[in-house]
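REVIEWER CHECKLIST
Item 1: Sequence provided? yes
Item 2: Single chain? yes
Item 3: Sequence as submitted:
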Amino acid sequence: MAGPVQSIERAAAILRLLASGPRRLGLGEVAASLGLAKGTTHGILRTLQNLDFVEQDPATGKYQLGAALLHLGTSYLDVNELRSRSINWADALAARSGEAVRLGAPLEGQVLIVHHVFRPDDTLQTLDVGALLPLHASSLGKVLLAFGSVPLEPAVEAGLEAYTRHTLVAPERLTQALTEVRELGWAAEVQEMITDEAGIAAPIRGHGGLVVGAIGISGTVERICDAKGVPQPALVTQVRHAARAISRDLGAARW
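Item 4: Structure as written out by the authors:
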């Protein structure tokens, strides 16, 4: 029998390394971590980049996992299509709102971030593409739960983790909140996952009206909400407008 293919093993090792940490890595860091020559590492990274398995930040030259990997774990929607249809609208939403924009899709009982636009300022930010968020503690996740993209029962049975003192961990409170999301057509999180941070999200629909993802903004509570901690109506309108526009591009009727 044929033995293992060394180049594939090295490519897999690079992908695992990039997936194991929260930050991007430079060529030297990848090579040193895996004990490979820089030339060999660069060749593998370039091949992975051509396949969209790896992305390189044009400003820093550092590498991260690419969008092509994100769709491998999904079932009923091509994440690449969702992402490509959303890019222009997400950029516009970030520019109008002044906040970071994230696009989420369901994956194994969590929210997979498939696209992330940085807040349009000079503050230090971390790319969230590929990150997994909890359903019950994020505005993106609440949208997916409320509109049936993922079932609620498994999340409740597994136990609702408290990330802050504001996290909805009582099933009856979460159920009530999801009912409100369906009635309003959008979801919010206010210090439920991270203290002093808030978010607003709205559903993205595909053919037949099925909710296939969610788009939302996130930022500090003082920017997202009013003095009473209520999301600002203007921001809600901007998020819903972007969600409807993407839905139309995906073929959803009446959006």
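Item 5: Key structural point noted by reviewer: The first strand starts at residue 54 and ends at 56.
Item 6: Recommendation: ____
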